[in-house]
């Protein structure tokens, strides 16, 4: 009898885990996308491949990947970029348990937030970079982190481009708001973010997997975000 109860409990746990599903799937892909799993194994992903917390995603040169999360949000990874999904938790009926933490290790991305970041705890959605931690609330923007790998065209540091909504860039030296159509730059944690008067020369998203550029993509919200 005890053995039977243990088997039932194990099956219930497995079904509960399975119901949660993957954190995200590869919605669109142009080029090559690879993943390093938490156990160190590396494999090539394809469209509809699943992505989970702990995965490190890498795109090759001239490759784009659009990752669609279960909360409805998405992240488009630029060419020659690396992104880690540090943690992800989403339960439609439990907004207080929302959790989405990811790190831009190299390169660039474009993101549109889903339900995580629009409800519950403001700090549930965090994007880490070398110079800032970005908290997002229903906005649409691009980031490019240059670390000696932008071909000399752009200064090293974090470049920001707001497409819809408002972001507040904040670090040890101060803060500054950026609104739709504006460009910004954060060179380090100890130098105040600045407004850039025009596009500094961010690369166009040609070959983008959804067939357009970031400027042509509609937003799903617009409450704004903050950068610590």
Which features characterize this protein?
228 residues, disordered C terminus, mainly beta, globular, 18 strands, 18-stranded mixed sheet, 1 helix
Quick synopsis:
With 228 residues, the chain is mainly β. It contains one helix and 18 strands.
Shape type:
globular
Order of helices and strands: HEEEEEEEEEEEEEEEEEE
Overall pLDDT metric:
82
List low-pLDDT spans.
Answer: 4-19, 211-228
What structural category characterises the helix and strand content? mainly beta
Beta fraction: 35-45%
Rg over CA atoms, rounded to whole Å, is 19 Å
Cα separation of the termini? 55 Å
- Residue share in helix: under 10%
Note the total helix count.
1
Total number of strands? 18
Taking the sheet with the most strands, its summary is: 18 strands, mixed
Write a structural description.
There is one protein chain. It is globular, with a radius of gyration of 19 Å. The longest helix has 19 residues, at about 1-20. Helix content is about 10%, strand content about 45%. It is mainly beta and about 230 residues long. It has an 18-stranded mixed beta sheet that branches.
Could you outline the blueprint of secondary structure elements for this entry?
Blueprint: H1 2-20, E1 24-30, E2 33-36, E3 42-45, E4 50-51, E5 56-59, E6 64-69, E7 74-77, E8 82-89, E9 99-112, E10 125-128, E11 133-137, E12 140-146, E13 157-164, E14 166-171, E15 174-179, E16 183-186, E17 194-196, E18 224-227
Parallel strand pairs: 9-10, 14-18
Antiparallel strand pairs: 1-4, 1-6, 2-3, 2-5, 5-8, 6-7, 7-9, 8-9, 9-12, 10-11, 11-18, 12-13, 13-16, 14-15, 16-17
